[in-house]
Amino acid sequence: MGDSYTFKSKERLKQAKLIESIFNKEGKTIHSGPLLFVYLKAQLDTDVPAQIMFSVSKRKFKRAVDRNLLKRRMREAYRLNKHQLYAHINQGNEQYAIALLYLEGQILNFEAIEIAVKNTIGTFIERTS
Q: Is residue 39 part of a domain?
């Protein structure tokens, strides 16, 4: 069980083509508070059920320190709650490419971000069941 609470490099979404297809094509969205969860069923190069990227707008947060803080908080909230997502995806034997975007105009604490991540994962599970 200890391995499931890590966030490895192969779980990061890095392929430019796949990132572009999430935003340009048939990527579906879930809006939950400060977060926008965009997902697309895709064939990934690795054996993980999902690859994810985190993004914070430079337009809203000029300082890189603030953007990095928010991405760290989103990444940690995802890392702690991804086991629910993986359990659901593994049942269907599918793979997903996911983008998690921070939309709020102010810096929220970790607890608020974690609640939003849990809500988006719950909504994702409902929609893909």
A: yes
Domain of 69? 10-128
37 in any annotated domain: yes
Tokens 């983008």 found at: 99
Side-chain half-sphere CA neighbours of 105 within 13 A:
0
Position 56 in a domain = yes
CA–CA dist 52, 78 (Å, integer): 9
Q: Give residue-wise pLDDT tens across range 105-118.
A: 999 999 999 999 99
- pTM metric for this prediction: 0.90
CATH code at 58? Answer: 3.30.230.10
Paired tokens of 73: 């908080």
Highest mean pLDDT among 17-31, 65-79, 90-104: 65-79
pLDDT digits (tens, 9 = 90+) for 74-105: 999 999 999 999 999 988 889 999 999 999 99
Q: Is residue 2 part of a domain?
A: no
Match 């709650």 to its residue by tokens: 81
Domain count, the chain: 1
Looking up tokens 């879930």 gives 30
